Amino acid sequence: MDIKIRTATVEDAEKLLEIYAYYIKNTAVTFEYAVPSVEEFRERISHILEHYPYLVAENKDEIIGYSYAGRFHPRAAFGWDVEMTVYLNQKVRRAGVGRQLYALMEEVLREQGVVRAISLIVKPEDEYSDYNSIQFHEKMGYRYAGELKDCGYKFHRWYTLVYMDKQIGVTQENMVPVRDFATVREKFGL
């Protein structure tokens, strides 16, 4: 595959939503029940891009996956932490697309001044969840940081969330605020 990674636009919403809809309908990977409207998805993309990267992977001009980061928690002390997200077209899973998206995402976030990347993963327990996400994050250098037992209800059963995290930036006294994505994206050709 000849993978090109670029910044998402609101015009990508329909194609991104096609990828995401699979996960809503068929997995416990997301705790969302209903597929959002294209308009709502456009708003989500726009909201993320106000501060953080939202990246799209393409192969021959076809969108095959996407990744974005968002603030982990609204309290001020969490200002250097982000929650990572990645979704791939089912045809390209295990082909290195997620790895490429995450690697570039981490570089951009590090340049912004982010210190910690966090991923919330449904604990593998049944046919709606599997070990792939945990294995992927382990290979990317994330470590187990804890779990919330029975915190999400979907498909008439309860799921546990596993927290995995990775330090991608430097901790120090007198931290400088995280810069917006718009201030660093040109450095990465995004």
Give structural notes:
A hairpin with a 2-residue loop joins strand 6 and strand 7 (157-167). The longest helix has 16 residues, at 97-112. The chain is built from 4 helices and 7 strands. The protein has a 7-stranded mixed sheet, sandwiched between helices. It is globular, with a radius of gyration of 16 Å. The protein is α+β, with helices and mostly antiparallel strands. The mean pLDDT is 95.
| Shape estimate | globular
How much of the sequence is in beta strands? 25-35%
Widest sheet: strand ordering: 1-2-3-4-5-7-6
Count of discrete alpha- or pi-helical segments spanning 4 or more residues: 4
What's the mean pLDDT score? Answer: 95
What string, H for helix and E for strand, traces the elements in order?
A: EHHEEEHEHEE
- The Rg value, from CA coordinates, equals 16 Å
Helix content: 25-40%
End-to-end distance: 20 Å
Strands, total number = 7
Broad structural category: alpha+beta
Largest sheet: 7 strands, mixed
Which stretches are low in confidence, meaning pLDDT under 50 for 5 or more residues running? none
Keywords:
190 residues; alpha+beta; seven-stranded mixed beta sheet; 4 helices; 31% strand
